[in-house]
């Protein structure tokens, strides 16, 4: 699967959020409170930042109009446990090719989102209803629990977490992630042969633990 400005979506999902984050050298992860709305949900796409008022999802409806194929709506809902998003909006999003949703707030209809295969990550699951009053902001940078998200940043979300890769660093991060994955494959082979992580990563130079002689292997 490819598209997304020449990026290989399948490769990004295989590398995963953790490897991409670690290889980036940046604090580009979202707070662990952001979790998949259903088991197996995963997202790759370009961020469309949205700001919504607490308990008001009108901005998300405007976001549906603004976003297009391969985009991810990344929404600051203030962390409020309301059902900002559900099956109806997911169907509308898929018709436009929108890749997924990341929201600091709640979603609902999680079984239906799973059946649709629509990737959604949220900080809560909630059936509490919303109003439609404030149109919000679209495309303006937002801050999600300390992490700034700009329009066009690359979003990679899976069961491990959500990485937001700055748009100008994506090529560098991808190359670094490929190199890290290749190195880790070689490490795995050595571990399967019985090598210890202490030696593999040269951790012995950091010192030895203080042991209780009575509990040491040699005293048994």
Automatic annotation (TrEMBL):
<protein>
    <recommendedName>
        <fullName>Putative 4-hydroxy-4-methyl-2-oxoglutarate aldolase</fullName>
        <ecNumber>4.1.1.112</ecNumber>
        <ecNumber>4.1.3.17</ecNumber>
    </recommendedName>
</protein>
<dbReference type="Pfam" id="PF03737">
    <property type="entry name" value="RraA-like"/>
</dbReference>
<comment type="function">
    <text>Catalyzes the aldol cleavage of 4-hydroxy-4-methyl-2-oxoglutarate (HMG) into 2 molecules of pyruvate. Also contains a secondary oxaloacetate (OAA) decarboxylase activity due to the common pyruvate enolate transition state formed following C-C bond cleavage in the retro-aldol and decarboxylation reactions.</text>
</comment>
<dbReference type="InterPro" id="IPR036704">
    <property type="entry name" value="RraA/RraA-like_sf"/>
</dbReference>
<dbReference type="InterPro" id="IPR005493">
    <property type="entry name" value="RraA/RraA-like"/>
</dbReference>
<comment type="subunit">
    <text>Homotrimer.</text>
</comment>
<comment type="similarity">
    <text>Belongs to the class II aldolase/RraA-like family.</text>
</comment>
